[in-house]
Task: inverse folding
């Protein structure tokens, strides 16, 4: 069995939503499928649709892999590689481009969002064709399971559609990957009710200092209920975030405090702050101990290994479509 996912290095680090929405589910899957291969690629070609700063793109990729290691990801088991140095991704992407109709692509989220904003003519061709390259990234390695957030589900569905189309036209070639979404953390919401995102400026970075984290926590809006009034935890923004960091036993205790007399929002914000600090400090310590050179050497080694797998697959594909003379 092979599990495949990706990380897009448009930012220099992860926020808490990235951890609970992407890294934690991957750790869960790795534990659940102990014998599975785990492929994780740096989606830097996808990031290039947004980020045209060469030094930032490179450093972001290094930082992101360091953060995976700092978040207790086993880099011996997680094969993290750079598809930009594997030419078969772009070549398979071209084959899929020739098999995909415009009408299908116009139904993709990225294009529809640009259309809704009146910016459809401003997006790059790369952004428009983003799902096609993603399908190539997935199908090139015969992945069985693809863990994604809800906003990425459509990409896996398209990969399945194009795999089926190719198999029907050229014979059985690609596996049909199954999408995996851990529902309880598929979308991590912040205090404004929206997905935690840099775009909304509603996030806490894993590498933020204590002062910044405290400021973010203090900004969380709460109701005007007095200390002596019973409070519904499920209606409290602070509780919803706090729950991410709690064991079932801690969650039960906190809920009882909400439903009893005497809990102030100041108290629960302080509790949340302490939980976040306890969570990020070990990550920050591990991150500081990992060198850029170690990460570069690891990714280069993995890329060479994965390239051999991809090349065998593309040779099979080339024969079927007639590219191989």
Result:
């Amino acid at each position: 069995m092979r599990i495949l996912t990706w990380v897009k290095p448009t930012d220099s680090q992860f926020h808490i939503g990235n951890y609970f929405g992407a890294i934690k589910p991957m750790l869960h899957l790795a534990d659940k499928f102990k014998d599975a291969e785990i492929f994780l690629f740096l989606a830097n070609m996808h990031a290039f649709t947004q980020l045209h700063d060469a030094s930032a793109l490179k450093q972001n990729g290094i930082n992101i892999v360091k953060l995976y290691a700092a978040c207790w990801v086993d880099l011996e088991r997680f094969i993290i590689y750079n598809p930009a140095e594997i030419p078969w991704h772009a070549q398979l992407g071209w084959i899929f481009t020739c098999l995909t109709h415009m009408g299908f692509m116009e139904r993709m989220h990225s294009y529809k969002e640009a259309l809704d904003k009146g910016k459809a003519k401003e997006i790059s061709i790369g952004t428009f064709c983003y799902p096609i390259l993603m399908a190539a990234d997935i199908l090139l390695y015969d992945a069985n399971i693809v863990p994604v957030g809800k906003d990425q589900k459509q990409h896996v569905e398209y990969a399945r559609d194009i795999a089926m189309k190719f198999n029907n036209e050229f014979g059985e070639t690609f596996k049909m990957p199954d999408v995996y979404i851990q529902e309880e953390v598929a979308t991590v919401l912040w205090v404004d009710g929206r997905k935690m995102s840099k775009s909304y400026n509603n996030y806490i970075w894993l590498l933020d200092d204590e002062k910044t984290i405290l400021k973010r926590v203090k900004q969380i809006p709460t109701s005007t209920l007095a200390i002596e009034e019973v409070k519904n935890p499920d209606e409290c923004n602070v509780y919803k975030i706090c729950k991410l960091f709690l064991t079932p036993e801690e969650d039960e205790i906190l809920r009882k405090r909400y439903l009893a007399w005497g809990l102030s929002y100041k108290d629960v914000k302080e509790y949340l702050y302490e939980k976040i600090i306890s969570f990020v400090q070990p990550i920050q310590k591990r991150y500081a101990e990992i060198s850029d050179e170690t990460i570069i050497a690891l990714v280069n080694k993995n890329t060479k290994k994965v390239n051999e797998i991809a090349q065998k697959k593309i040779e099979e594909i080339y024969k079927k479509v007639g590219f191989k003379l």
DSSP finds 14 helices and five strands in the chain. The longest strand covers residues 2-7. The chain has two domains: 2-187+291-321, 208-286.
